[in-house]
Amino acid sequence: MEHYLEGAMHQLETAAALCREGHPIQEEALDQLKMQAEFAVQFLADGSADDTSTKKEQLLQFLLGLANLHQYLSHHASLVGKPN
């Protein structure tokens, strides 16, 4: 789970940094983030006794970050889907 969280957060941070710098985000990258978000939601919904609150907090931070990215992109649609 730690490896998944690190990878997902890295991809999210990379996408957000590209947006802040005015670079476009490929739709494939957004699709991958969406799939990671679906996994995060499923993990949170299935929660077991072994899940730590730290893991849950990190998953929620990822989901919030992704929501913020989507909000930003909704106001800057020109940054979605253009080739690099």
Give an overview in words.
It is a single chain. The protein is mainly alpha-helical and 84 residues long. Helix content is 74%, strand content 0%. It contains three helices and no strands. The longest helix has 23 residues, at 53-75.
Question: Which features would summarize this protein structure in a list?
Answer:
84 residues; 3 helices
Count of alpha/pi helices: 3
Element-by-element helix/strand order: HHH
Q: Got a strand count?
A: 0
Q: Tally the structural domains.
A: 1
Cα radius of gyration in angstroms: 14 Å
Helical coverage, percent range: over 70%
- Categorize the overall geometry: elongated
Task: Indicate the low-confidence ranges by residue numbers.
Answer: none
Largest sheet, in brief, is: none
Mean pLDDT: 86
